[in-house]
Design brief:
- The protein folds into three domains: about 35 residues; about 140 residues, Penicillin-binding protein 2a (Domain 2) (Alpha-Beta Complex); about 325 residues, DD-peptidase/beta-lactamase superfamily (Beta-lactamase), CATH 3.40.710.
- About 40% of the residues lie in helices and about 15% in strands.
- The chain contains 19 helices and 16 strands.
- The strands form five sheets. Strands 1, 2, 3, 4 and 5 form a five-stranded mixed β-sheet that branches.
- β6 and β7 form a beta hairpin.
- About 40% of the residues are buried.
Length: about 575
């Protein structure tokens, strides 16, 4: 049979049979064609669906997926730890899991939103639903989940819900180092304090960042400061301890404070975030008499036995300068300092003049912001024209406002043989000599140390005395401004002390904001009644921790105390 001959099924014959055979073959060809079309359609549909899946999961979602990938890459380079001077952990990063969704793959957005909010009650249902219905390839759902929460979500078996490795910054000591360390945001970027200042360094290095702080001393300072604020019903306070030889800050506290672990979960009051030590500019009151007296001695204006009449208030224009504890007889320069006479300090300043005072304040750094390794640094406030009223009021701590950091740094220079060191929050290599800036001579420094010691031993700062340690210091009481006028009885009090005074190593500042008089203080709320005793308690507790060797007081009594000044008759320039 030829190839083109029509096949006639068995049992068929004749013309009609040939016609039926043609119909049969035509129907068979049509069935084959339809079958081919159906197969091609199935193949085409398969490729369309596969292409769509690739488009959704890989191509069109690549922008958001790359964002997640970048987060993952960043999480692999964990933020470096921060430790104190002894290697104790202050800040670290913990591995966590964060939840995200590919909204294009989620099948039932309402069901997914409901189940997720049941496991994570902190999520808002409507907000979660909106994210899942956004049509985006990458949307955050929740950050920093615990392993338990991650396991619960995995058990839900929700399509389009994924996890990625993340990290969370943790501060083991909570509020203790809040204003120094600062905090990070949810993406581990530093937003304050050391975390912000060294943000790039902490993200790029693996070795811990070692600070100058001592966790033991920091705890004591905060503990006693909190007790003082409560006892005297103060509205806040601040404290600082510095090594005068190196400028290392051993402890720094500003109250009220905050928990850096909870910054993202709670609304913080601005006052809690405010660092009083480095940002606040205050008129520091009688603490400035340290600089006034040091300048007087340095320039040999006269001697410590030179007397000034302080029996009557001093009139400057429409203002009257008076003493808190008036003396009705002339006082020597030494007594003016130890008795904290405003009138005497003003008369000393008038004799020196602004040509000496202003450059000296500039040398002490009072006209520019302090240098410290945190971004929260405030600027001092001072008049552009250094008039006579400024000269007078600045001698006893009014008319110029500086930060407590300025104050401690400058007093540190006065007592440290005249060498002022720049403050630092980083641990200093003990084998490397740190050069400072000379602000007064060694002779002036020695004399000022003796005067400061006498204030604590016999004068207004005696409540800061600590048995076995040579403590010296100066009280500072300044009325606070209420609008444009000073409010009597509303004080900012401070005590700045150093020890041991024969060979100064540490300087301690205690500052209380508007402390109240109590029965124990006999109705007084000046610094000698509140800030001084708090400082004494701090020194008593930290001196052994810092391995400061106590003195033999029995030997001092029997042989005489070399820190006490024995003044004789006036020398030159007495009046």
């Amino acid at each position: 049979m030829s190839q083109n001959k029509l096949y006639v099924p068995q049992g068929y014959s004749g013309a009609s049979h040939w016609r039926d055979a043609r119909i049969f073959h035509r129907a068979l060809d049509m069935a084959r064609t339809r079958l081919l079309i159906v197969c091609c359609s199935f193949i085409l549909a398969f490729f369309i669906i596969a292409g769509r899946l690739v488009d959704v999961s890989l191509l069109r979602g690549s922008g958001e997926a790359n964002l997640a990938h970048s987060h993952s890459l960043q999480a692999r380079h964990f933020r470096a730890d921060i430790v104190d001077r002894n290697g104790e952990l202050l800040a670290t990063s913990l591995k966590t899991s964060s939840l995200y969704a590919n909204a294009r793959v989620v099948l039932d957005t309402k069901e997914a939103a409901l189940k997720l909010t049941q496991v994570l009650p902190e999520l808002n249902y409507n907000d979660t639903l909106h994210r899942l219905q956004s049509g985006k390839g990458f949307v955050w759902i929740a950050r920093h989940l615990t392993p338990q929460k991650q396991a619960e979500i995995i058990r839900l078996g929700l399509p389009g819900i994924y996890f990625q490795q993340d990290e969370r910054r943790v501060y083991p000591h909570g509020e203790l180092f809040a204003h120094v360390l600062g905090y990070t945001n949810i993406d581990n970027q530093g937003l304050g304090g050391v975390e912000r200042k060294f943000n790039e360094l902490l993200l790029s290095q693996e070795t811990p960042l070692k600070l100058s702080l001592d966790i033991r001393v920091q705890h004591v300072l905060r503990d006693e400061l909190l007790a003082g604020i409560e006892k005297y019903s103060a509205q806040g306070g601040a404290g600082m301890i510095m090594d005068v030889r190196t400028g290392e800050i051993i402890a720094m506290i500003s109250l009220p404070d905050f928990d850096p672990n909870q910054v993202g979960k709670m609304g913080l009051h601005k006052e809690a975030l405010f660092n009083r030590i480095t940002l606040g500019a205050y008129e520091m009151g009688s603490s400035f008499k340290i600089f006034n007296t040091a300048l007087y001695i340095e320039n040999e204006i006269s001697s410590l036995t030179t007397k000034y009449d302080v029996s009557a208030p001093l009139r400057v224009g429409r203002f009257r300068i008076k003493d808190f504890h008036p003396a009705h007889y002339p006082l020597t320069v030494a007594e003016i300092f130890t008795e904290s006479s405003n009138i005497g300090a003003a008369k000393m300043a008038l004799q020196m003049g602004s040509s000496l005072q202003k450059p000296f304040f500039e040398k002490l750094g009072f006209f520019q912001p302090s240098s410290l390794e945190i971004p929260e640094i405030g600027s001092p406030l001072y008049p552009k024209q250094w008039s006579e009223p400024t000269l007078i009021t600045a001698s006893y701590g009014y008319g110029i406002a500086i930060t407590p950091l300025h104050l401690v740094t400058a007093i540190g220079g006065i007592v440290n043989n005249g060498i002022m060191q720049s403050p630092t929050l980083l641990k200093v290599d003990p084998h490397k000599e740190k050069k400072g800036k000379r602000v007064v001579s060694e002779k002036t420094s020695e004399m000022m140390r003796k005067l400061l010691y006498m204030i604590v031993a016999q004068g207004r700062g005696k409540k800061a005395r600590v048995c076995g340690y040579e403590v010296g210091g100066k009280t500072g009481t300044a009325n606070t401004l209420n609008g444009k006028a000073y409010k009597e009885g509303s004080n900012l009090t401070s005590f700045t002390g150093a020890f041991p005074m024969s060979r100064p190593q540490y300087i301690v500042l205690i500052m209380l904001d508007r402390p109240q008089a109590i029965k124990e203080t006999y109705g007084f709320n000046a610094a000698g009644w509140n800030s001084a005793p708090v400082a004494g308690k701090v020194i008593e507790r930290i001196a052994p921790l810092l391995q400061v060797v106590p003195i033999n007081e029995e030997k001092i009594v029997s042989e005489g105390n070399p820190m006490l000044i024995h003044v004789s008759a006036p020398q030159k320039g007495a009046h």
